[in-house]
Amino acid sequence: MIRTPLRPLARILQARQRGENPDHIERENLRLRIEAMRDTARARAESRLLVMAGVFLAGFVLIGAQMALLAATEPMAPTPGRTEAISSERADILDRNGRVLATNLTTHALYAETRHMVDPVRAARELGAIFPDIDAARLERQFTDPNRRFVWVRARLSPEQRQAVHDIGEPGLMFGQRKMRIYPNGTLAAHVLGGASFGEQGVRAAEVIGVAGVEHHFDERLRDPALLDRPLQLSLDMTIQAVVTEVLSSGMRMLGARGASAVIMDPHSGEVIALVSLPDFDPNNRPPPPTEGEPADSVLFNRAVQGYYELGSVMKSFTVAQALDDGMLTPDTMVDTRSPMQVGRFRISDFRNYGPQLSATDVIVRSSNVGTARLAQQIGPQSQRDFLDKLGFLSGVPVELAETLRARPLLPGNWSELSAMTISYGHGLTTSPLQLAAGYSTLVNGGYLVTPTLERQPGRGVGEQVISERTSAQMRYMLHQVVERGTASFARIPGYAVGGKTGSADKPKASGGGYYEGKVLATFVGAFPMDNPRYVIAVTLDEPEDTTGSEPRRTAGWTAVPVTGEIVRRIAPLLDLRPRPASEIEQAMQNALAAAR
Amino acid sequence: MSYLEYNVKRMPSGIAKVMHLNWPLVVLVTAVSCIGFLMLHSVAGGSMLPWAEPQMKRFALGLALMFAIAFVPLWFWRSIAGLAYAVSVLLLLGVEFFGTIGMGARRWLELGPIRLQPSELAKITVVMALAAYYDWLDLKRTSHPLWVFLALLIVAIPTLLVLRQPDLGTALLLGLGGVLVIFLAGVSWIYFAVAILGGGGLVFAVMASRGTDWQLLKDYQYRRIDAFLDPSIDPLGAGYHISQAKIAMGSGGWAGRGYMEGTQSRLNFLPEKHTDFIFTTLAEELGFVGASSLLVLYVLIIGFCIFTVLRAATRFGALLSAGVAVTFFLYFFVNMSMVMGLLPVVGVPLPLVSYGGSAMLVLMIAFGLLQSAHVHRPRTPS
């Protein structure tokens, strides 16, 4: 850039000749230069402001246009052309034995075409008498408003109400057919079914769309015109579901628990026979999602699927299974259980001291934290992580419920040796009860991966084998011993050979950091009959407390285990299992072990 | 610009300043706030409590604050701009360490009886700091990389602190507002062109790499982006607000269902009906006519802000007023777009209408500063 010099030599010389002080020339030029700079800056600022104003204007126009569009898209009276396309058809949902879980009922909606009304004032008054909750004065205003041609009066009518409206004799009052989704069993399997509500509404029909649960997951299939006469069959057994719900809710009440869940699964196919989460709700009248409080306290929350918790000692079986499978130990190998065990600044101790050594079987039977942590130390964090990943514990279990989309386990940020040790006894990794049931299915079914499903799929098999047949047989024996002589003796139902593992996890504080004293999540997960497991069951109780003794007992052995025992005692006969003599079961277990060796 | 420079020019003083306020703006702000009181009254089912009455008290306090600030000479605000900025950054740091948690994020700071949301305060202090910075900076250096970097730093520090809370909506407004002020200050086009191209390129690279071997993000992160951009993927979560809001707005039609006749919002279909989503109630009850009237009021407010900007002869006054206009615009633009489904849901209130103390007071303070610039604008001697 060429600039005018501040002290042009020629002019200064001229000024000197005239005998003037040349300094004012420099001052004058400096002023001009600054003014020029200010002007450019000002021009630039104004052009920028102009651009900004343009952007503002574009924003205003955009918002205004969208406003007009939204105001115009849904006219008060649905246009006749569009209603033809609305289908309110929806296939039924059945349980595995063909009993109805969800079906449709035809009702009517009431609307008014004000142009055809003979006496709108009387019609409004009489409607007010039929429906006490309707504001008759407002209705009258709407009926007589010259700008309105169409008024929705009511979404659903009972047959009596419909007859009463007929009797008014007002030609402008019209009925539109509505299909209503009903769940004849009320709250039964509420969390699985979810619920439905009206979607797009027209005069003659309204879409029924699933808003949660299988209704949402299978929404397209249920509404597919080609499949309407083929009901969706779930893997649930309504009878079992009902019995489990009843026992679980009375157990929850007796133990003063905040909530509870239960899952029963076929370990050879992954089909879920029963899935209960309490407290529950009535899907016929699904409550709106809560706007305040913890979502996990809502009745809509499916504890068995969405609830990812630290489940405690039930996870020990996976550590022992991995150690067995890697050939690091046999059920009789002695494990160091000197308590407490010091790891850096962290101290691992047992519920009571079990002496210097326990056999691997007794580590599970007595539920020794120290013994399991020692095994995890030998396995190592990387190998443990890989094993749990293979079983699906790191990624969240897929099942046909909309709610599983966002539910994921909480993993440790850094899978250190210390976290490997705490994870080995169920702290530091969260798991849902459904996932736990799937994991135990793998432990007892011969070592094959299981993906849970809620859809009846005859002939569905299992996945890839991840632990050996031998390890699985050893695990079946150990889990049976837990019930026969260990922490889960209340689940000993003669003749049905129940086996499983208890877990009593302190609940983490909601504020983060530390655990509550005396607030426990009690879990029992097991299978029956143990010599050839046909069903896996997982029961959790949230903050149970058995107050029948001299001091409150909260551990799973006193809470989740007796509840599970009662469930098995009642459902085993319904599941066509015959009680067998103890000697026969013992013999079968021994044979399996011997064959595995 | 110095104290002396101000007094050389003819400047109203004392009570005469009242005559020189930007009165149309005062009237407009009051009108919009009154619409807010009406809507809060309606949302509460025709009751002054729990929302309308506290909001009115806050507005009264805010109005007093606005006048008080308007009467203080602009040079004072310029000289404390740096201090105000530093204090707000310290408060944000305070939230980071001592803040209380509400609705899953750490946003509030308890100072005795007062519950303060420093992220709201930062919106105005960042604008003040930038205006003072460019007022101080030699014009020739405006586009020098070092000085551009410093300006960006002024914006980035509070933005990142707010982002950590996490409060995506406020961080977005803060960052975007700051960058727009820098743009208005006259920094070279090239920076903005490069930033837009670079940002676009980055977004393109991230999305294009999906499903390939060199995928830049984890799968679940992509799924989150999907759900953020298209809430209908997740109708029980983020999509719930939007679909309900759209139904409410559609049912309002042209003339609306009438004041206090809204069903969609009253029947508790909409969470946050008194805060971020209050516009749906308005649109349902007062229809397109009511909603577009509110928009017109907002347009007029912006218009009178720009009037002040054009009148201000000093760089500080002009940039400060422009910053206030930009912040205000972003507030309602983002809120309305979000409610009408043009933008993903981020938590931004509707200015002067949504229930909320910090936002209302901060906006009134901002208008007070703009009024101060208006009152104390240099006038040519008559």
Automatic annotation (TrEMBL), chain A:
Domain Penicillin-binding protein transpeptidase stretches: 261-550
Keyword Hydrolase: yes
Record domain Penicillin-binding protein dimerisation: where: 86-223
InterPro entries linked: Beta-lactam/transpept, Beta-lactam/transpept-like, PBP_dimer, PBP_dimer_sf, PCN-bd_Tpept
Coiled coil feature spans: none
Compartments it resides in: Membrane
Keywords in alphabetical order: Carboxypeptidase, Hydrolase, Membrane, Protease, Transmembrane, Transmembrane helix
Name under which the protein is recorded: Penicillin-binding protein 2
Native source organism of the sequence: Rhabdonatronobacter sediminivivens
Lineage, broadest ranks: Bacteria, Pseudomonadati, Pseudomonadota, Alphaproteobacteria, Rhodobacterales
Automatic annotation (TrEMBL), chain B:
Membrane topology reported for the UniProt record: Multi-pass membrane protein
Annotated TM spans: 20-39, 59-77, 83-104, 146-163, 175-208, 286-310, 322-346, 352-370
Compartment(s) where it occurs, according to its Swiss-Prot or TrEMBL record: Cell inner membrane; Membrane
Origin superkingdom: Bacteria
Any one GO cellular component localisation term in the record: plasma membrane
Catalytic activity: [GlcNAc-(1->4)-Mur2Ac(oyl-L-Ala-gamma-D-Glu-L-Lys-D-Ala-D-Ala)](n)-di-trans,octa-cis-undecaprenyl diphosphate + beta-D-GlcNAc-(1->4)-Mur2Ac(oyl-L-Ala-gamma-D-Glu-L-Lys-D-Ala-D-Ala)-di-trans,octa-cis-undecaprenyl diphosphate = [GlcNAc-(1->4)-Mur2Ac(oyl-L-Ala-gamma-D-Glu-L-Lys-D-Ala-D-Ala)](n+1)-di-trans,octa-cis-undecaprenyl diphosphate + di-trans,octa-cis-undecaprenyl diphosphate + H(+)
A GO BP annotation: peptidoglycan biosynthetic process
Pathway: Cell wall biogenesis; peptidoglycan biosynthesis
GO MF annotation terms: lipid-linked peptidoglycan transporter activity; peptidoglycan glycosyltransferase activity
Entry keyword set: Cell inner membrane, Cell membrane, Cell shape, Cell wall biogenesis/degradation, Glycosyltransferase, Membrane, Peptidoglycan synthesis, Transferase, Transmembrane, Transmembrane helix
EC number: 2.4.99.28
Nucleotide-binding listed as a keyword: no
Purpose of the protein: Peptidoglycan polymerase that is essential for cell wall elongation.
Similarity comment: family membership: Belongs to the SEDS family. MrdB/RodA subfamily.
Name the record gives this protein: Peptidoglycan glycosyltransferase MrdB
Organism whose genome encodes this protein: Rhabdonatronobacter sediminivivens
Higher taxonomy: Bacteria, Pseudomonadati, Pseudomonadota, Alphaproteobacteria, Rhodobacterales
UniProt gene name: rodA
